[in-house]
């Protein structure tokens, strides 16, 4: 039985970052992101968790404040080679996709997408569509019977802008600073023209998916998560005001999925 006062950690290893959640029972107390750890940083963290090393400046930011008590670590990863490194910590519980109670999960479906979808379903009910605005923007949907009905993957805003700069001779690097104000649609300089092309076309594409989803599941929830989730949620609410109440911004969906799964697995 999970105790309401127990502390534990959730870790989702993404392609470019580590996503952390610190729980007390079912309550998510804090979440943060870090870069992938070096071997020395990982050793320092594990020794700290095992009680063999006091907290010091060698611990990555965010982990210095976590209680030192051999905390259980619930781990999921989209980078398989990272898993054995974290399993050196004996309190690690590895989450695999087959443990997630969703039907129709195909072999190459990312566990991050499954966990976010499971977390959204537990929070907002099924059917549900999750739009994760990360490095890659993903859409993943499930029906009333908790069956995955499909989804889509496209490059996120930052990845599209970086690709334009890296794969062309004359286009510059454009800093990514997403805000509620969009760039001019008809830009008069190159950086804003790049931003306009990427942002307006991406929003239009996501809107098309949302409209199609609502035509089939008019009462279904739609949850935005990921680093660009707030930006997407804000602009889609403005573009589809009739569906605004069905659109939710929830940066903790993956952690909610992990917590719900932990309650099942014990």
Molecular structure report:
This protein has 266 residues and is an alpha/beta fold. It folds into two domains: 7-94, ATPase, nucleotide binding domain (Nucleotidyltransferase, domain 5, 2-Layer Sandwich), CATH 3.30.420; 102-253, ATPase, nucleotide binding domain (Nucleotidyltransferase, domain 5, 2-Layer Sandwich). 34% of the residues lie in helices and 22% in strands. It is built from seven helices and ten strands. The protein has helices at residues 39-49, 83-86, 111-124, 157-166, 190-216, 229-239, 253-265; strands at residues 7-13, 18-24, 27-34, 73-77, 92-94, 128-133, 136-142, 148-155, 221-225, 247-249. A five-stranded mixed sheet has the order 3-2-1-4-5, with helices on one face. Strands 8-7-6-9-10 form a five-stranded mixed sheet, sandwiched between helices. Strand 1 (7-13) and strand 2 form a beta hairpin. Helix 4 packs antiparallel against helix 5. The longest helix has 27 residues, at 190-216. The termini are close together. The mean pLDDT is 90.
Question: Structural class per helix/strand content?
Answer: alpha/beta
Number of helices: 7
Largest sheet: 5 strands, mixed
Q: Tell how many strands the DSSP assignment holds.
A: 10
Average pLDDT across residues? 90
Poorly predicted parts: none
* Share in β-strands: 15-25%
CATH architecture of the largest domain: 2-Layer Sandwich
| Assembly state (oligomeric) | single chain
CATH superfamily of the largest domain: ATPase, nucleotide binding domain
- Lateral arrangement of strands in the main beta sheet: 3-2-1-4-5
Distance between the termini: 6 Å
According to CATH, the fold-level topology of the largest domain is Nucleotidyltransferase, domain 5
CATH class group of the largest domain? Alpha Beta
Total domain units: 2
Pattern of helices and strands: EEEHEHEHEEEHHEHEH
Rg over CA atoms: 20 Å
General form: globular
Q: Helix proportion of residues, in percent? A: 25-40%
